[in-house]
Amino acid sequence: MRQATVYIDSEALQYNLNRVKQLAPTAKIVSMVKANAYGHGVKDCLAALGSTDAFGVACLEEALEIRALGFQQPITLIEGIFSLDEMPIVLDNQLELMIHHQQQLDWLRLYKDQYIQKGLKVWVKLNSGMNRLGFKVSDIIDVIQSLKADGFQCVLAMHFANADVDHHPLNELQKQQFLQVKEACSPILASCCNSAAIFKWPELNFDFVRPGIMLYGASPFADQSAHDLDIRPVMTFTAEIIALNHIQAGESVGYGSTFISEQEMDIAIVSIGYGDGYPRAYLTQNYVSIHGQATPVIGRVAMDMIAIDVTGLNAPIGTVVELWGKHRLVDDVATANGTIGYELLCRMTGRPKRKKI
């Protein structure tokens, strides 16, 4: 049986949740579990996140999956609803809405009494410069004041565009706009910290923090690893060596014959490829890990297989190869691929087996 396997470490996930609690001890935690818990599998992750105060998801379908699994914590739909017919389902399942444009506001008001009676908070999104979702400063104060006057409990929310970048000028602009609105709408609950901001700006933790990537043990920063941040990788992605070849100088490996050996070498074929979610294209040399040792990937990644250089290693058929995990960090694989760890985790396919450890 093919041994491509994703292991989900529940203890690591709990450890990372506790790191959030250490960094933001007075804030409630909205654990982001959108996109199937960043590719880790909602079913495999929710129990380990059981002590979180709330969950955050992108859409109604993701929220309903959490409710179907029996979890009763508050859930915020961070993109709100997409049509009016979702409102009765929102109410039946005790879900909280992020409001970011006038149509959503109108839909909410049609169900004002039911929403308020259930004690649900309205998250009102400030567009302070990211220019995706939200009301501008010129509009949001009136929106919040009118909601408060109608009896809604509001949370002022914002998302940083560059929290991972030191000294980016937009960071200060976003902070100033958020604080301006918060003061104008006082008293009001507030939330603006994602993973990067939780590490960088404890003074902005306010009432709710919204950790995402840090929960899963990947870094939100390009220049700091998970180890640097004292968070633990939750996903370990492995496969096994299924064949060994000895090649001579001048022989090529893989599609396109892009790798040509300069000397005799031993290569191993590993049962993994882009059909499993392992990335195909690399800007710089990529590695896997065997017994904790970095081992180069050579030639093109195929749909189902890769080749690695095992010259001088004790790596017989059946040897387990870590594609990413505790030794070969997913962020390092992503950097070699010219992307970020978020993307690699989220685009995992359903083909590898999944196991909780």
Automatic annotation (TrEMBL):
Keywords annotated in UniProt: Isomerase, Pyridoxal phosphate
Residue ranges constituting the Alanine racemase C-terminal domain according to the UniProt record: 234-357
Presence of keyword Transferase: no
UniProt: substrate binding residues: R132, M303
A biological process term (GO) from this entry: D-alanine biosynthetic process
Pfam families the record matches: Ala_racemase_C, Ala_racemase_N
Sites bearing N6-(pyridoxal phosphate)lysine, chain numbering: K34
Matches recorded under InterPro entries: Ala_racemase (IPR000821), Ala_racemase/Decarboxylase_C (IPR009006), Ala_racemase_C (IPR011079), Ala_racemase_N (IPR001608), PLP-binding_barrel (IPR029066)
EC number(s) on file: 5.1.1.1
A single GO molecular function term of this UniProt record: alanine racemase activity
Record flagged with keyword Iron: no
Residues annotated as catalytic: K34 (proton acceptor), Y255 (proton acceptor)
Reactions accelerated catalytically: L-alanine = D-alanine
Pathway terms, separated by semicolons: Amino-acid biosynthesis; D-alanine biosynthesis; D-alanine from L-alanine: step 1/1
Main EC class the enzyme belongs to: isomerase
Cellular component terms per the entry's GO annotation: cytosol
Essential cofactor(s): pyridoxal 5'-phosphate
SMART domains on file: Ala_racemase_C
Job of this protein: Catalyzes the interconversion of L-alanine and D-alanine. May also act on other amino acids.
Family: Belongs to the alanine racemase family.
UniProt name for this protein: Alanine racemase
Native source species: Acinetobacter bereziniae (Acinetobacter genomosp. 10)
This protein's encoding gene: alr
